[in-house]
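Hi R.,

Here's the chain you asked about this morning:
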Amino acid sequence: MVDIDQNITILSLDGGGTRGIYTAHLLAKVEQELGVQIRDCFDLIVGTSTGAIVAGAAVSKISMVDIVQLFDQEAPEIFKQKWYRNQLLFSKYSQETLTEVIARHIPSILLADVETPVLLTCSEITTSDLHVFRSYASKKLNSKNPNLDISLRDAIVASCAAPTFFSPKKLKEHYLADGGLWANNPSIAALAEAKTHFKKDISQIKILSIGTGHSVSMYKERNGWGFISGWGGTKLISYVMALQSQTSAFLTQQLLNENYLRINPVIDFWDIDTIRHLDQLKRLAERDFTEYISGIQDFIQRDNVES
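And the predicted structure, written out as tokens:
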């Protein structure tokens, strides 16, 4: 746990389905070129949905190269639509398949056994409330963490359960869905966590925030704006999450100024379940690593960077 008089450096990872390969590849370049491991560079790692997969891997001592391979090899299986799944009655994809993939790549450990502090976001759909998983006890009101006996795998699956794409995840008394419904970019949640649970002043907080692509061509002029004809059905889910990401980035930037670095490439509209653009996303990550490397170095703990 970070001492109260120390600064806190946070890695914030957006949701975005298959576009998470951009995040993983960018972080893989950081590990390879700087000779570091991501988990050693930050005091807290916060992830939503696909960002929760990357965050969970990082704190599990899994290299980011391996997670890039996860997206390359497993995304076609996770997002393989079964002909017999009627989307009017069932989620588009199988939660069981997602769970099996996570189990193949993330170790079977409890949140209590995770050494690097990690926070994963979810949405509680029964009570219409936010829900977070922490791997550490809260300092706020000296409270205990009721979720330390939850497995890291289950927390990740819950954070990934995007409405209509996957079924909600039931854990204890909670029905949990994708944290992207309120924190697709969890930067503002990370900032709140640093202030309330780690007792930090604004001046003590630094956040490196990595997105999964901001579409500037999501909607065009249409004759009708019905749920399917205009808003595009499940496309509306992507729009809501994208808007939340932009809002979170704007608010966090206003509060932290130069202590907030946001890396988020401009893309065409690529939905969260597309697998056609994985190679292009990796190329974007390599481009952005070159552009932002000096800034990234300013946002990671210098003692961990090879000279």
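Residues 211 and 264 are 5 Å apart (CA to CA).

Let me know if you need anything else.
M.
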